[in-house]
Amino acid sequence: SQTIHQWPATLVQPVGSPLSLECTVEGTSNPNLYWYRQAAGRGLQLLFYSVGIGQISSEVPQNLSASRPQDRQFILSSKKLLLSDSGFYLCAWTLARREQFFGPGTRLTVL
Amino acid sequence: AQSVAQPEDQVNVAEGNPLTVKCTYSVSGNPYLFWYVQYPNRGLQFLLKYITGDNLVKGSYGFEAEFNKSQTSFHLKKPSALVSDSALYFCAVRDVIPTNAGKSTFGDGTTLTVKP
Questions:
Q1: Do B44 and A49 touch (CB under 8 A)?
Q2: Nearest by Cα to A82 from A2, A13, A9, A22
Q3: Does the pLDDT of residue B98 top 80, yes or no?
């Protein structure tokens, strides 16, 4: 069966510090991968998606970047965090006509 | 372009009563439609989907949804609500075109509160 992991679960970082969030998927090959941010328990904002290794598309210009160094690994990064980067970050994957499968999320607080 | 609207931020029902969470969508082609549920500080969980076929779709935990093409709606329903159904519910739509990389557009969410 397929599983998706995210870490860390929670993170508190000072403004201006770097960020690296990791997402890995098990039990499937060549998935489409997505990073979302959710503010205040409401709607999802799609940040990045990837259809293959090294292929990253950005949905909104911002202080973040993403990379996919391996087929089932998706990393969200920042060189310098802003207060506005705080939120709940969700990784998800899908194949073809299937629904999206979400990870447990990372709660990021920037102070 | 694809979009989805959940017109109600909050839905309150009494336990044992039927519940409906509304969703309308817009796509340029044919839609794939999904409902997800989110509990506090957790990722979204898939409830049900419409891809093709029967307009009435049955999913997890006794939930169902009806695809109505003429009204471009996909409302989530349950005949008898439970307190444990209280959560945040998201409707999502995906246009059936190969070039959109499987991207879904999510509604803003509806908070369902079921009172004992």
A1: no
A2: A13
A3: no
